[in-house]
Automatic annotation (TrEMBL):
Name recorded for this polypeptide: DUF4962 domain-containing protein
Domain of life: Bacteria
Keywords on record: Lyase, Periplasm, Signal
Subcellular location: Periplasm
Xref: InterPro entries: Chondroitin_lyas, Hepar_II_III_C, HepII_N
GO MF entries: lyase activity
GO CC term (a single one): periplasmic space
Residue ranges of every copy of the Heparinase II N-terminal domain listed in the record: 71-215
Pfam families reported in the protein's UniProt record: DUF4962, Hepar_II_III_C
Residues covered by the Heparinase II/III-like C-terminal domain: 368-531
Organism listed in the record: Spirosoma endbachense
Primary localization class, coarse: periplasm
Length: 781
């Protein structure tokens, strides 16, 4: 009989829906286990204790401030909630109760401006924020509430928060939004905050479990949304991590979902949830677009981003959800408490409760020094992960909403500063936001007759996206290609920009063509004090200093007598609004103008990275040119680099290959470069005879869009298709990068079988025949 009863009881237990098997309040974020761990850490960790004291002090301050339901106390309800749970002092619970009763007694939380739309939007960020407040407060003080008080709160959050969100955003009978129109950060905020509120009221609302499950399933669709062609909407998340809306909104949108996922996990431990997909790589994205420095961590602020934005929330939430990525600890260790308004810093309640053991944080992340996010078309390249190193951020891709008209633009961080910057952004309601900050003029791009991307793209998007591709990183030689033709196609029929980084010189090579003759302008937004010095533009901020030197189609006038040199580039200072600085409402940027009216041209611009503002040990740069070539020779650190732009390879000829000769080198490459030891006088400057280096003298090769290289009747490289290649020789070691096609069978000249052979960053046993390495690259496409 006992065994029969035991079997019946076991069957009943297993038959109980999983929604009934949740822990008792509090369970969303401040679980009993987490609070016990925090209590122990306060006793043994002085930093944790200090942060807890700050949180409790703030909670005490809130007891006498923000008495209205929409005041400061509501927006910081987590402080009061944690103070109550850690101390059990009734004064904190009473404060939370008062806030919730007042808030949930209101007839509506809807924003009147949104209600005036057709159809009315009953759910927005305001209702989402209030759902969060109620969920946190209700979960924390649940056991102090009477039945009537619970009813007021539950009825209010259902009426004003949960149902409006589900009705507007999810449920088929009433939904007015779609992932195609509003599937960005608003979607996750409005829907997932309603999901958290549903989890908070499971004990008191029979439908709450179904609502939470509905949110979970809908959120999976949001995560996996792949965009559309008809209205040119991008994917929600880049497949390698990242979100196109800017670091700000990527952090906000992803963390709203991750908050819900963590609350769901805590509520239903062990219940299977949808795979995180691209979100598993989101933490490394935030690291790759960050710039560690002496001072608050910076991030690439393309679009509506901010320099000091923190992705602490999504990174810490991913870690709490089980990520074992040590790079997460490194990232969190770079942040300063309060450096951005949205963060789970350890001096915030949830941030403290979920603060990892930072003693395990690595000194540097285990990440490559370059990264390309090919769906959203962002890239970063850096000299190292040390603080105050040099980092170049590049963007092309999509334009709409928070993603500005900045195809092919760049930001340069050097010695702790954004020395060449993005102009930034302003309050969205200001006239300067749509007229300037969003538009091409606010970015480091090229204009034709004063235009690049059409202004309408802010609202209608860019149906033809820009593209970044062919990232290669071989140490102090790096490259990426940007194609902004699509977004700028109203004014450009060709708009390519190549970034080639050679030690202390970054070459920016622009290949532009319009539909008619006109004037091209190269825009530069300095991030420090700037002035013209000879043929350079000098930019200095603190210890950071660079020189920007136009080389082609012409140089700047060395003197101040521009009228004596009408063929030279013209430097124009442009006054523009300054981002978020009421004391200094305007600033200057530069337009470097080619004076000739042309339909097609090439720009080659050198950015020289200085060790300090007083650095005099600078690279020597010499212009090289012929009818079919433009190029530069750079002398630096005992090396000479020659870079050639093949004018025959820019699409001007059809069916005939772009075969050309550069200083004895024969190639069909669009861009070709070599680096070899400098055995000449260290002071040799322009006007000297060129050095003729052969394959045995060359240490580094660079090729963009080429199929072969020959010298002295010897084939140095060969591939049937035009590919992208970097090669670095170090004694009998070879590091080779070859890419650009799904299948490449190539050969590379090497004097003997290399002791060490690295192909596309992977060690490989060399296949060596008759002085040539045989290489096969297959990427499965």
């Amino acid at each position: 009989m006992k065994s029969v009863l035991f079997g019946i009881l076991a069957w009943i237990t297993l038959s109980i829906p999983i929604f009934a098997q949740k822990p008792s309040h509090p369970y969303l974020f401040f679980s009993k286990e987490r609070l016990a761990t925090l209590t122990n850490r306060i006793k043994t960790d002085t930093a944790i204790a200090h942060n807890w004291n700050d949180i409790r002090q703030e909670a005490d301050n809130l007891l006498t401030n923000g008495d209205r339901g929409d005041g400061q106390a509501r927006t910081k309800i987590e402080w009061l909630a944690l103070a109550y749970l850690m101390t059990t002092e009734k004064k904190y619970a009473d404060k939370v109760k008062g806030i919730l009763i007042r808030l949930c007694s209101q007839p509506t939380w809807s924003n009147q401006e949104m209600m005036n739309r057709n159809p009315p939007w009953t759910s927005d960020l305001q209702t989402a924020d209030r759902c969060w407040s109620v969920a946190i407060g209700y979960d924390a003080i649940y056991n102090t509430l009477t039945k009537d008080e619970r009813k007021i709160i539950v009825d209010g959050v259902v009426r004003n928060g949960i149902k409006p969100a589900l009705n507007d955003w999810v449920l088929p009978e009433t939904r007015i939004h779609t992932l195609n129109s509003m599937g960005h950060n608003w979607w996750s905020a409005c829907v997932d905050m309603a999901g958290i509120a549903s989890l908070a009221i499971l004990d008191d609302q029979p439908e709450a479990a179904d609502w939470a499950e509905t949110v979970m399933k809908a959120s999976e669709e949001w995560m996996r949304f792949s965009g559309d062609q008809l209205q040119a909407k991008p994917r929600t998340f880049d497949r390698t991590g990242g979100m196109y809306e800017s670091v700000n909104y990527a952090a906000f949108g992803s963390s709203e979902y991750l908050f819900f996922r963590l609350a769901y996990t805590n509520t239903f431990p062990g219940k299977k949830q949808p795979d995180l997909g691209a979100l598993k790589k989101l933490d490394d994205f935030f690291a790759h677009v960050s710039y560690p420095r002496t001072g608050p961590l910076y991030s690439l602020n393309f679009g509506d981003g901010e320099l000091t934005v923190s992705a602490d929330r999504p990174v810490k939430l991913l870690y709490a959800l089980g990520s074992d990525n040590p790079n997460d600890l490194w990232y969190m260790n770079q942040l300063t408490n309060g450096q951005h308004r949205e963060g789970l810093f350890p001096n915030t309640p949830i941030g403290l409760v979920y603060q990892p053991d930072m003693s395990k944080a690595p000194k540097l992340p285990n990440l490559a020094t370059s990264a390309l996010f090919a769906d959203m078309n962002w890239a970063s390249m850096r000299t190292s992960w040390e603080r105050d190193a040099t980092m170049l951020g590049v963007k092309s891709g999509y334009t709409w909403n928070h993603s500005h008209a900045d195809a092919n633009s760049f930001i340069l961080f050097h010695k702790g500063e954004d020395i060449i910057k993005d102009a930034g952004n302003s309050w969205y309601g200001s006239k300067d936001y749509p007229e300037y900050f969003f538009q091409s003029q606010a970015h480091n791009v090229i204009l034709f007759n004063g235009k690049a991307q059409p202004k309408e793209q802010q609202y209608n998007g860019s149906p033809l996206s820009g593209k970044l591709s062919e990232l290669m990183d071989a140490g102090d030689m790096k490259y990426i290609m940007a194609n902004g033709t699509g977004p700028t196609s109203a004014n450009f029929s060709r708009n390519f920009r190549h970034y080639l980084w050679l030690d202390k010189v970054i070459l920016i090579i622009d290949d532009v063509k319009a539909y008619e003759t006109g004037k091209f302008q190269w825009l530069l937004h300095p991030g420090g004090e700037s002035k013209k010095v000879g043929g350079d533009i000098s930019i200095v901020k603190g210890k950071s200093s660079v020189l920007v030197r136009p080389l082609f189609p012409e140089t700047l006038v060395q003197t101040g007598f521009d009228h004596d040199f009408p063929e030279k580039m013209k430097l124009t200072e442009v006054t523009a609004p300054k981002a978020r600085d009421p004391q200094h409402p305007t600033e200057l940027y530069y337009s470097i103008d080619y004076p000739e009216q042309v339909k097609q041209t090439k720009f080659i611009t050198a950015i020289i990275l200085k060790e300090s503002p007083d650095d005099k040990d600078l690279p020597i740069i010499e212009r090289l040119h012929s009818e079919t070539m433009q190029g530069v020779r750079i002398k630096q650190h005992g090396k000479i680099s020659e870079i050639y732009l093949n004018l025959l390879a820019d699409g001007r000829i059809m069916h005939l290959n772009s075969v050309n000769q550069f200083n004895g080198w024969e190639t069909d490459a669009y861009l070709f470069g070599i680096t070899y030891p400098d055995h000449t006088d260290g002071q040799r400057g322009s006007g000297s005879s060129p050095t003729v280096a052969g394959p045995d003298e060359v240490n580094d090769y660079f090729m963009a869009y080429g199929s072969y290289v020959r010298k002295n009747q010897e084939t140095v490289f060969s591939s049937l298709s035009k590919v992208f290649m970097m090669a670095r020789k170090d004694g009998n070691k070879l590091n080779l990068i070859v890419q650009g096609q799904p299948l490449i069978n190539a050969s590379f000249r090497f004097p003997k079988t290399p002791d060490t052979f690295i192909l596309n960053h992977q060690p490989l046993k060399p296949v060596y025949e008759k002085g040539q390495l045989r290489v096969r690259v297959e990427n499965g496409n």
